[in-house]
Amino acid sequence: MSLGLYSQLEAKPAHRPPLLVHMMYFPWDRDQHLLENEQNFDHQPYLEMQKRVQKDHGRVVMWTYSKAKNFCLKHYPKIWSVLQQHAARPVMYVDVLRWLVVYHFGGIYWQYHSIPLVESMTGFLPCNGKQIRLFTECILTQEFAQQMAQNPIRRGEPEELVRVASQVFSCSTKKNKILRKLVDFLVTRVKKNKVHCDYDILYISGNAGISEYYDQCMQHNPRVELVSLEETGKMINFNPKSSWRLDGRK
User: Fold this and answer.
1) Nearest CA to 133 among 181, 187, 71, 176?
2) Surface-to-core class of residue 22, CB atoms within 10 Å of its CB (0-12 exposed, 13-18 middle, 19+ buried)
3) How far apart are CA 151 and CA 159, in angstroms?
4) What is the dihedral of CA 31, 33, 36, 39, to 10 degrees?
5) 33, 112, 218, 233: least CB-packed within 10 angstroms?
6) Is residue 244, in this structure, part of any structural domain at all?
7) What is the CATH number of the domain that holds 61?
8) What contacts 78, CB < 8 A, 6 or more positions away?
9) What mean pLDDT comes out for the span 11-34?
10) What's the rounded Cα separation, in Å, for the pair 164 and 192?
11) Which one is predicted more confidently, 5 or 151?
């Protein structure tokens, strides 16, 4: 992120881009160690997103590891310290930082390689007086949700039936208090929970954790909108090309 763009993001609302899209990519190797060359990934999705937002006079912020680190050390050093000490895998950095940058700057978070199915990215922004727009990844069956309760980290509690996506979301305001509470929730979970298997990451900082927080703290908030699974499917093709999973790998 250039200093020019950073100063624009920190500027008064009248001088900020009307549409802001955050993308984040931390490349890692087969054993999920961060690559020394943080630019070693396909830049085409970023370039395509830049073209997509031009007609709306928008900007795209491409968060690499070093940019995210510098941002955190300047504004949120305690959060960075927790991640350094307790995040078991690089994906947990991304899980927390995606919400943090949208909290700080506002705008849309967009998962790398996912595909927008609507013409304008403004369609992903909150509307009808809402401040936060979330999307539905999937709906779990009662049987599956109960089966997940057998994971030790869930302590016998079944999963929420609505799996809220962390791959795409948006916020219309900077420093939104609702998102700050969510960030604090994730940071606390990263600090207090150990990772023993892939599912633990989903529970601690991933979509299962976000779904639990939404169910307990956000679903009745009139400033938060959750787009239905049917409508989400018309808007987003979730299309991750890299995996953070290690369990069962050959």
Assistant:
1) 176
2) buried
3) 10
4) 90
5) 33
6) no
7) 3.90.550
8) none
9) 82
10) 22
11) 151
